[in-house]
Specification:
Elements lengths: L2 E5 L5 H10 L3 E5 L3 H8 L10 H10 L3 E4 L7 E4 L14 H10 L8 E4 L7 H12 L9 E4 L9 H7 L2 E5 L2 H12 L6 E5 H32 L3 H8 L22 H8 L5 H25 L6 E5 L14 H10 L5 E5 L15 H5 L4 E4 L11 H7 L4 E4 L11 E4 L12
Parallel strand pairs: 1-2, 1-4, 2-3, 4-5, 5-6, 7-8, 9-10, 9-11, 11-12, 12-13
Antiparallel strand pairs: 6-7
Bound molecules: nicotinamide-adenine-dinucleotide.
The site of nicotinamide-adenine-dinucleotide (NAD) has 29 residues, from helix 4.
GO molecular function, one term: oxidoreductase activity, acting on the CH-CH group of donors, NAD or NADP as acceptor
Family: Belongs to the UDP-glucose/GDP-mannose dehydrogenase family.
Protein name: UDP-N-acetyl-D-mannosaminuronic acid dehydrogenase
């Protein structure tokens, strides 16, 4: 094994290319976006990831990694293209189909073909293998076809690509072994071989597990609000049980994994997945729940100023994809009853369709600060300054991340029992 062709140079494909290049392989990274290739061949990158600029610079300079707009002959092909959902919540595997078709002219007997993109169960057998068969090759004998899902955490991708356990699901046992060997050359974590469909399902169940458990915490929030219980205390105490781990509630679930992957299972087994579907519904209902609490808090004010803090789907990142915080902000901005200011130190103007404010402008004259992301900046707020600048020093913290501030009245998502309408 000498040469690897990686198709799709995003958050997964680019670091993967760089890691194989660093290990001494000749790597050609392919992307349909010519800007990505142009930058790469200058040793530069188009995404943010810790340590990646330096690594890419090094492996491009020593000739181990280069970019190209179309694939080339190689010993192994790794496909890492997007798999979004359609408007009807079914998986869009078109990018995987196109990437597979793109490698066909260069595919030779004995090559390893790995799909790293997250895919619905049976995609390797029902979608990828038939494309190779139509090309005149036997996908179960002539090539080694496998799904190897990714489970890296943005910000730690270079570490986790090497240290995480890898699940390698081949369409045959020999395909699992051959694809496993590709990873064994660079991975220090375990490389576990299994069948393709098991690998597909295991990746989807990891994210579905988290989605379902967050839904349980969010349901607890609604139950607690009705019964007059503090859900945060309930979670803390219940989690003292050695085998209980209730997740944290919040304004919903976002991102391109947790909020998307469960639909890949639902699509394939709609009658058998009521729990997963209900969990999606509960998590999707949270933005409305948050807005209804904002309505309750501000119902006695004429034109309340709400300062939205945080737009990303989790803390300390700049990603607003599928973000419930963004949905809440949009809804409030579009409602003329509210005067809305929006502050997020991690998000740039071009990422959103409305105006972003500075911290000072956001809080100036505000009746309510609505915290929607647990950025570190929000864990160190100056209560005195907030109280001085705000019209009424009230906060609704949907992430339960802001410490107690003696100058502010803070309502937390799991403790809305004593919620009272704000008076000017
Ligand atoms: N980013 C993560 O943290 C993460 C984690 C686990 C799994 N995944 C999965 O990995 C896959 C890739 O995700 P990503 O975040 O790297 O996506 P991304 O959007 O960052 O990058 C995908 C790249 O593929 C390119 N592309 C699209 N079609 C192509 C084609 N036919 N040929 C060549 N290039 C093509 C795009 O131009 C883009 O640069 C997805 O299935 C995703 O669900 C991502």
């Amino acid at each position: 094994m000498k040469k690897i062709c990686v198709v799709g140079l995003g958050y997964i494909g680019l670091p993967t290319s760089a890691i194989f290049a660093k290990a001494g392989y000749e790597v050609v990274g392919v992307d349909v976006n010519p800007k990505v290739i142009e930058l790469l061949n200058k040793g530069e990158i188009h995404i943010e990831e810790v340590g990646l600029p330096e690594l890419v610079k090094e492996v491009v300079a020593n000739g181990k990694l280069r970019g190209a707009v179309s694939p080339e002959k190689a010993d192994a092909f790794i496909i890492a293209v997007p798999t979004p959902i359609h408007d009807d919540y079914t998986a869009n595997v078109d990018y995987v189909v196109n990437a597979t078709k793109a490698i066909l002219p260069y595919l030779e007997k004995g090559n390893v073909v790995i799909v790293e993109s997250t895919i619905p169960p049976r995609t390797m057998d029902d979608v990828v293998a038939p494309i190779i068969r139509e090309h005149g090759m036997d996908p179960y004998q002539d090539v080694y076809l496998a799904h190897c899902p990714e489970r890296v955490l943005p910000g730690r991708i270079l570490i986790e690509l090497i240290e995480n356990t890898r699940i390698v699901g081949g369409v045959t046992p020999e395909a699992s072994k051959q694809a496993g060997d590709v990873y064994r050359a660079v991975v220090t974590g375990d490389v576990i071989e299994t069948e393709a469909v098991t690998a597909e399902m295991s990746k989807l169940m990891e994210n579905t597990f988290r989605d379902v458990n967050i839904a349980l915490a969010n349901e607890l929030v609604k139950i607690s609000s009705k019964l007059g219980v503090n859900a945060h205390n309930v979670i803390e105490l219940a989690n003292k049980h050695p085998r209980v781990n209730i997740h944290q509630p919040g304004p919903g679930v976002g991102g391109h994994c947790l909020a998307v992957d469960p639909y890949f299972i639902i699509e394939k087994a709609v009658d058998e997945s009521p729990l997963i579907q209900t969990s999606r519904k509960i998590n999707n209902s949270m933005p409305d729940f948050v807005i209804s609490q904002v309505d309750r808090l501000t119902c006695e004010l004429g034109n309340p100023k709400v300062a939205v803090f945080g737009l990303t789907y989790k803390g300390n990142i700049d990603d607003v994809r599928e973000s419930p915080a963004l949905d809440i902000a949009k809804e409030l901005v579009g409602n003329s009853r509210y005067n809305v200011s929006v502050y997020d130190p991690h998000v740039r103007d071009e990422q959103v369709s409305f105006k972003l404010d500075t911290f000072e402008d956001a809080i100036d004259g505000a009746h309510l600060v609505l915290v929607l992301a647990d950025h570190n900046e929000f864990k160190q707020l100056d209560g005195e300054l907030l109280a001085k600048k705000m019209k009424t020093p009230v906060m609704f913290d949907t992430k339960n991340c802001v410490p107690e501030l003696s100058e502010l009245l803070i309502y937390r998502i799991g403790d809305l029992t004593n919620l009272k309408a704000i008076q000017e």
